[in-house]
Amino acid sequence: MTEAEIVELYRKRDEEALRVTQEQYEHYLMKIAMQILNDEEDAKECVNDTYLAAWNSIPDNKPERLSLYLGKIVRARAVDRVRYNTSEKRRASEYTVSMEELEEVFSDDRSPEDELDAAALRDAVKGFLLKQPAEDRKLFLERYFYFRPLKEAAEQCGMSEPKAKSILFRMRKKLKAHLKKEGFTR
Amino acid sequence: MKKNQLIDAIGLLDDAVLAETDGGGADGTELGTAVVTASENKATIKRRFRIILVTTVILTLIGGTAAVASGGIGGFLNLGNRIKIENGGELLQHEYVAYGDARVRTSSIRGAVNKDMKTMPKTMKDRPLWSNTSPNTVVKRYEDIEDAIDYIGYSKLVFPKTDYPFTHIYTEVTGFQKEDSSEFKPGVICFGATQRYHSNPEYWFSTSIYIYTDSWPMGNVGIHTAVTDQATYTSEERRVNGRTFCIVLQEDPSYSEGHQLSTGIFWQENGVFYYFHIVYPEELREEAEKVAQEWMESFP
Known about the structure:
The complex is a heterodimer.
Chain A: H1 3-11, H2 16-37, H3 40-57, H4 66-88, H5 94-103, H6 118-130, H7 134-144, H8 150-156, H9 161-181
Helix pairs in contact in A: 1-2, 2-3, 2-4, 3-4, 8-9
Chain B: H1 2-11, H2 15-18, H3 53-62, E1 67-73, E2 76-84, E3 90-98, H4 113-118, H5 120-126, E4 137-141, H6 145-152, E5 166-177, E6 184-196, E7 204-212, E8 222-228, E9 232-240, E10 243-251, E11 261-269, E12 272-280, H7 285-297
Antiparallel strand pairs in B: 1-2, 2-3, 3-8, 4-5, 5-6, 6-7, 7-12, 9-10, 10-11, 11-12
């Protein structure tokens, strides 16, 4: 079944939409959640929250790419959950590893009152990414959007792990400079 | 704080940028190397009986294709589902699903929760769906259990009161829209509390209460738990003051020392699901059994 057909099932409030979504996207969504959470139980819960969110939201929204739409939701749910979990006990996952990598880009050098505009920051990151070679951009997203392990992200982009590591290192440096120029870091 | 915002900003990137990736495996590739192992589950010790009601209901709707066992206990149908994990082991999920449709009428929920539902359309409209909170869920904290009961306003809701000090009282209500309506109604109401039963703050018990209304789109509802394949898992029915409770005892050596024993108790009455959970070390086994018994006896 195509994505558009599944979206149509949601819009018709046909519960078949949930079954098909689970059948076609469960692995994809579990993978994103697991890479962030490293906990099957939590990941499963986030994935099911995602089905629910899709069920509630698609009458109002008509996603062009259902997979990306679901992927964004599950990522947000998983990030939310890992923050809650790590406030109690730090757990090693690709999320925490990625966070450590991104720390060099965006250190906590501002006060909590120094709230950033999320949309402006997103646009700045997008502006930066669009200036990067397509291959590097894909690698960055595999690593920091989907939280793929480095080795796997490298494989996805058809490059060696050391090369991917080196590209990401350079990208983080460049992103840091870009965000500084845009006034997001000092 | 700020690196969190960077992670969030990346999460908000639009589809045009993300479309260059393969969708992180949207083609249905197998779980990667991050699959949890049974031993790694130790970190989740305090939540090993986490109630995943949304999960349960959706799985119930969709139908568990991996069901391996079923049976009835108390007022529940116990469905077992095996989940393979990376180290060759399995997690065994137990779904305690109520017989028949256990939802209550939405109109029987008369508390201030209904006022919060009225602001939900605006919240839903204003927030991006992938923000890190669910716009159709309202979470509140309380100092007093009665305030939580009042907030829900369901006349048949009771709280099993024991004398142990409360450490946390909350409600979490998920609103749903009926078809052809822009109005939100309380669909799933979670009401819970934790109480300390020992001087060591590691040891506490929780009471979790769930009400599904007919605004929730699915019929069968229940409670969902998961254990590792290393767990010894036994269940029994116990009759206390005319009620038959479903009791689940678990011993799991894969969990950390002092947290290997736990007891869960399930009960459903007037469309309300009650769930008790306590974790304890061997030396507190009798104490935990006493607390569990008091909990069952405390229903008015």
